[in-house]
Amino acid sequence: MDVLCGIFTFVSVSLLSLFLSLSFLMLRIFIGKSIKDPSYPPVKGTVFNQLFYFNKLYNYQTKVATKCSTFRLLAPEQSELYTTEPRNIEHILKTNFDKYSKGQYNQEIVSDLLGHGIFAVDGEKWRQQRKLASFEFSTRVLRDFSCSVFRRNAEKLVRAVSEFSISDRVFDMQDLLMRCTLDSIFKVGFGVELNCLEGSSKEGSAFMKAFDESNALTYWRYADPFWKLKRYFNIGSEASLKKNIKVIDDFVHQLIKNKRKLLAKQQDCNDKEDILSRFLVESKKDPEKMNDQYLRDIILNFIIAGKDTSANTLSWFFYMLCKNPVVQEKVAQEVRDVIGGQANEAKIEDFIQNITDTALEQMHYLHATLTETLRLYPAVPVVSSEQILPPKLFV
Hints:
Its cofactor is heme. The chain is mainly alpha-helical. It has 3 domains: 31-100, no CATH class; 104-318, CATH 1.10.630.10; 324-379, no CATH class. It has 17 helices and 5 strands. It has a 3-stranded mixed β-sheet with strand order 1-2-3. A two-stranded antiparallel sheet has the order 4-5. α10 crosses α11 (236-265). The longest helix has 32 residues, at 292-323. The radius of gyration is 25 Å and the shape is globular.
């Protein structure tokens, strides 16, 4: 009897605690948010809506935006304001760019993975990385190296697709494109072959898996109101994120260490091709500021920028071509007209080599279809900023 009473008391206290916690959370969400004030954007739910629609979040947000171009989702701390109004976007990202920042909210969410890379910092660090990246990417050596890498991996991709086609097998196009773009970006970034398309090493496979999972788990933080609590107790998704980031850090720091040793043996530092080598040369001017951790952050941010954006855009591009066979034939015919011949098994290498900058400039229809794909399925559908000064949005 005493045991039953004890269990009943424990359950009652637990339920009461849960009820009080939820009540407090609801009060934090709804009190003081000017819900009916017409000078504020209308409220279209709370941040918990993002949990309910997480697997189709962009579809949900798009549906809401078609009815109201600027709206709010209430949160315990600060409300989230969403806008698709062109004047608002121009105001935030162009004419008043200096009045908006990544903000503490975004930085707390992404800093474990992105560190002090360009997507997680503001001010001087952002300007320094942007200036350095702009200079490095404008150099002929890096441009030629990048083009060579992408052509080589495009050839591997075509051969892989051809094998599936010949054997009449089903395959995951997005997964194949993800592997191809990661191979390319990783080679350009670190000067190292990851070989995801052809079956990489055990360490490379572990990095690839940890990298993808870390991106997904970091994104989940935007919809999970309890992620800080889970990180504190190292449980659930946060425990998985911590484990994956350690795999990434160990792999990348070893690469940086090996690259430093390699560069120390080389005399000529002017013809370095990959981004890491060029940044390592630059780090000699200020070794304390550009240490291994900072280099890790910079390069990982470039890989994140280039991998998923490219692969997702190409996935949607091929999807749209399959849905529109007339457009598909026009694209294929333009490529045949400009490049000449067919990309059969015997001539794949020659076909790829003929895809030059000059040839690409002549493919106007291909450029139009890629641009339309980006319009319909943007690679970065949501950009997050926080106001430094009070905003003046055209709601």
